[in-house]
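Long-time lurker. I teach an intro course on protein structure, and each term I like to show students one example going from raw sequence to a predicted 3D structure in token notation. This year I'd like something fresh instead of my usual example. Would anyone be willing to generate the tokens for the chain below so I can use it in lecture? Attribution to the forum is fine with me.
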Amino acid sequence: MREENGLNQHLPDELTGLRILVTGGAGFIGSEVTVQLCRRGSKVTVLDDFSSGKIEYISSHDDITVIRGDICDRDKVADAVKDQDVVVHLAALPFIPDSYYYPEEFFRVNAMGSINVVWQCIQSKSVERFVQVSSSEVYGTALYEPMNEKHPTLPHSTYAVSKLAADRAVFTMHKEHGYPVVIVRPFNSYGPRVTQPYIIPEIASQLLSGQDTLTLGNLDAVRDFTYVEDTARAIILASIEKRALGETINVGSGRGVSIRDLAILMAKILERTANIRIDRNRFRPYDVNRLICDSKQARERLNWTPTVPLEQGLRITLDWLRARPIGYRSPFLGWPRVYRSGRS
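-- Reply from a regular --
Happy to contribute to a lecture. Here you go:
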């Protein structure tokens, strides 16, 4: 299996026995981080409120400690970080369209929740490193390509602003308290265990349902897609690599793909014809046009490079989605109904 033979050789032995808390550890990227850590022998605790994460994504590993809770709950977080060596912070409200209708909730969770987690880590006296998982969305659309960590941060959504606020708070607390943190900014991740109707599972759901015509929004938007195994490995390396301390590190493939070309490629893999209809109701207000990563810092600080080409990753993802049709659970309504219609 690729997971056993191709993945673990990229992760160092020092992860064995390390006590690691993963917030949002039952979510999309979080569950992949959790599973990889377990395979390396880390002692993993997951803190998740299961608003979108799924217990079945991590239940194959009996030795995981699971705490159900909100990252804004001071007592719950203080208890969760107690006696941990490392905290990997992934818990967030992740779906951009939701943030148009629930900005206060996004700031409560993504900004204030992050501040609560890092502050409890500082107070704990045991947590030796905090990894803040950010988002490439904080940069806004590319002013130059590829986008390195010095690219201006010009977020285009309330979600992105809430993530940037968390990053800024974590960095300043790192400076104020001399506390060891790393900020990792993944570009668009994709793969199994998805929890939200991002563009790849959305295209997949239409193709796999047998629709003759794909209904999509902005076909000219360009994104940098990185397979979730690779994203998770970078996050894990950031939790132990000394050269990463105090740094912000972009993680991506370095290849830009338009949504149009993505849909055509996915249809080709499924041996389908990609007839596409543009639905302007699916266009995002103030959309990000282009995101393409410069991962030089990840190569130099983490010794990380992506290993899964896009077509291979899409084949794995499509096979997973074909075998496991999923519904999207969310407390939110409004614009996302366009995507979630007919799903439970």
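Some talking points for your students: The radius of gyration is 19 Å. Residues 1-9, 330-344 have pLDDT under 50 and may be disordered.
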